[in-house]
């Protein structure tokens, strides 16, 4: 049985001419973080021979040709001065979310941002004080820990419950944390690393608790567009007026269209007072001017990228099927969790982790495959590894085969 749900209408769309997700590209020439196996020049590097890089969350595919062509035109223009967005920019964002996610934010609610994480940092600094509690749901994208602690706020860890190879909310614990004086809940929707799209019932339950205790919500929706399971992406602020009033919805086309190196993001803030305050804080940090290429890429992506995205979604679903089938037959002790969204697969390797004393390092040393260590994602991540399947299938297969061989010879 296939893991991905190919009855999802967005997966069943027609092909775009000329798109070849199987093609392998050399990314090292342009400073790729993923292929350098090092996040930045100040971070430790994962050392290994001939490493296959299946870790950090960007893809090894070319962006849609419409984007490449427009950026090429802009590059050829040769003048890369200060850039502003015009009203059409916001209409394009609004139209994308209306068409793809049944959410039509008011145009005036939309603020521009350089990227998601700087926006999260600015929201935390603007609406909380040092020492204030911020709820996150671990295991989760680890920069959440850094942005909270690095800005002098206190992490309140609401651990997800692992039940039958799926994550469920612990609402009792969430309520205890909210009641303890938490100021903001940092929601990851869909959730990274597990790719879980939260349901209406789950979001409504979280919202009700936040409402009772006066907790604001930052929702990071960066992984919302690649929908694999047929489960819709529900934007937190679309569930009710009070949810919209308390939330900051952070969106970007960067994961969807592989634009992380030329980021551009949008934050929707329905509450006018908070929106004005956030804009003032962003202006004070000189964050509002557009990046010349980032602005353009966002507009072209959202206006023309849908057919490419549908084709990408089909390809990713095929890669996930490969992982599931291969794991069942050749990776004893490793169980993939089926994501609802995006191109990341969370692998439960706890038994193996104990046996080899560190599964991530084991695969680096013995298979030449670099995956993300689940420990990075905080409590509950121990013994898991995150596999990025946003790559040509032959490369993914090579990685899986190397992993299987390492297990056989261990
Ligand atoms: C959940 C999540 N949020 C934010 C980001 C990074 O966003 P940005 O590069 O726009 O700061 C990532 C990147 O992996 C992510 O997975």
Automatic annotation (TrEMBL):
Gene3D superfamilies: Aspartate Aminotransferase, domain 1, Type I PLP-dependent aspartate aminotransferase-like (Major domain). It is an enzyme of class 4 (lyase). Its cofactor is pyridoxal 5'-phosphate. Residues 70-402 form the Aminotransferase class I/classII large domain. InterPro entries: Aminotransferase_I/II_large, C-S_lyase_PatB-like, Class-II_PLP-Dep_Aminotrans, PyrdxlP-dep_Trfase, PyrdxlP-dep_Trfase_major, PyrdxlP-dep_Trfase_small. Coiled coil: none annotated. It holds the Pfam family Aminotran_1_2. NCBIfam families: C_S_lyase_PatB. This is cysteine-S-conjugate beta-lyase. It comes from Mesorhizobium argentiipisi. The lineage of its organism: Bacteria, Pseudomonadati, Pseudomonadota, Alphaproteobacteria, Hyphomicrobiales.
């Amino acid at each position: 049985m296939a893991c991905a749900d190919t009855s999802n209408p967005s997966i069943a769309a027609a092909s775009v001419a000329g798109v070849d997700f199987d093609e392998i590209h050399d990314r090292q020439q342009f400073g790729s973080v993923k292929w350098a196996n090092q996040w930045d020049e100040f971070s430790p590097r994962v050392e290994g021979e001939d490493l296959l890089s299946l870790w950090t969350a960007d893809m090894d595919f070319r962006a849609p040709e419409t984007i490449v062509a427009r950026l090429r035109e802009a590059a050829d223009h040769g003048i890369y001065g200060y850039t502003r967005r015009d009203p059409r920019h916001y209409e394009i964002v609004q139209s994308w979310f209306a068409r793809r996610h049944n959410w039509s934010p008011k145009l005036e609610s939309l603020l521009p941002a350089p990227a998601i994480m700087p926006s999260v940092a600015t929201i935390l600094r603007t609406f909380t004080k040092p020492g204030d509690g911020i709820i996150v749901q671990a295991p989760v994208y680890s920069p959440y820990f850094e942005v909270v602690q690095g800005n002098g706020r206190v992490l309140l860890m609401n651990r997800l419950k692992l039940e039958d190879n799926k994550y469920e909310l612990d609402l009792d614990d969430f309520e205890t944390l909210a009641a303890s004086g938490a100021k903001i809940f940092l929601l990851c929707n869909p959730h990274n690393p597990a790719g879980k799209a939260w349901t209406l019932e789950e979001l409504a339950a979280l919202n009700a608790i936040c409402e009772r205790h006066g907790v604001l919500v930052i929702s990071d929706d960066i992984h919302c567009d690649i929908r694999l399971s047929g489960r819709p992406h529900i934007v937190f602020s679309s569930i009710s007026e009070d949810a919209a009033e308390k939330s900051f919805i952070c969106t970007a086309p960067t994961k969807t269209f592989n634009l992380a190196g030329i980021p551009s993001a949008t934050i929707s803030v329905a509450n006018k007072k908070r929106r004005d305050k956030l804009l003032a804080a962003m202006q004070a940090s000189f964050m509002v001017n557009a990046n010349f290429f980032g602005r353009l890429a966002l507009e072209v992506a959202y206006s023309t990228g849908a057919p490419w995205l549908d084709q990408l979604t089909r390809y990713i679903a095929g890669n996930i099927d490969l992982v599931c089938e291969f794991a069942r037959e050749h990776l004893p002790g490793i169980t993939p969790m089926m994501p609802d969204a995006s191109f990341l697969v969370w692998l439960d390797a706890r038994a193996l982790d104990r046996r080899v004393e560190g599964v991530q390092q084991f695969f680096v040393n013995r298979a030449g495959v670099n995956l993300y260590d689940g420990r990075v994602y905080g409590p509950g991540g121990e013994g898991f590894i995150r596999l990025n399947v946003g790559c040509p299938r032959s490369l993914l297969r090579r990685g899986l085969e190397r992993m299987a061989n390492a297990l056989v010879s261990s």
